[in-house]
Design brief:
about 350 residues; alpha/beta; Rossmann fold; 3 domains; four-stranded parallel sheet
Length: about 350
Amino acid sequence: MATLSLLPGVVPELTPALLERYAPMYERVREVIPELEWQTHLPWIDAIQGLKKQRNAVILAHNYQPPEIYHTIADITGDSLALAQQAARAEAKVIVQCGVHFMAETSKILCPEKTVLIPDTAAGCSLAESITAEDVRLLKAKYPGVPVVTYVNTSADVKAESDVCCTSANAVHIVESLGVDRVIFLPDKYLGQYVASKTQVKVILWEGSCEVHERFTGEELRSYRRAHGNVRILAHPECPPDVLLEADFVGSTAAMITHLNERRPRRVVMITECSMSDNVAVEFPDIQFTRPCNLCPHMRRITLPRIHDALLHMRHEVQVDPAVAGRARQAVERMLAYGRKEAA
């Protein structure tokens, strides 16, 4: 491994030896990373691999990270909660969160003894930023005694004001497990509407949304069918209702992958952040992916140079107030306890 990786601002040059060493890796991702881009990325990849070992670090990459991060330097991949759960079981002392800020907070909440770094502190989230802890307190005052179910795509402060967290995969089951006739569901209105359509529990909604998923339309999906014929459309429940009505399958990112593995359609459209399609396509070379490209601008703030910089300088450490973290952890742990009960 090149020793220059520890010098500030210096990355090993691209050499024939480097290309040869990483040739098997590139063979796997060549369909989603053009060769010229690979040659630009490779020195950073090599330097980061060296720094990981020196820092005793583990890199977490969300499903929406680009392939040059997701498939080359990440040790753990998945959705936001799966990343934090697996990080808690990792031996590494340092976590580098390749995702947005609330994900790094969740990692810190579940791994308080570890150092959590985020490569860019400006990597936010329109959904998480749509609601504050004060908003939740006002809702609880308006609806006293009504449990608050909060999507994990929220800040630590909001989680701390909640009774239980959920993911897009288990939201319906979490709501029904509470044994009540109504819940406050935060903050995604579209995911909340989807949950409401699947349960008899009354769902009190907040007007939050994901700027990536809300841009899709039902007409857009119909245009894919006209253009591509027999295409199977998979949509995330954060999308608007007219999109979900046009989709052949609605589910979380993990559920989409399971569906593809079971059904093996010839051609598919995944209605979610477009890096997800690139990353999944590597695992399913026999499936043709039509890529509607709504990029998350916040996820794109995480780059190989910024990851390298974070590890090199141990920069942008994420902290959560212990009092907030303790209450937020309770909401997350209640959800995890539900999952363990279901698996038993």
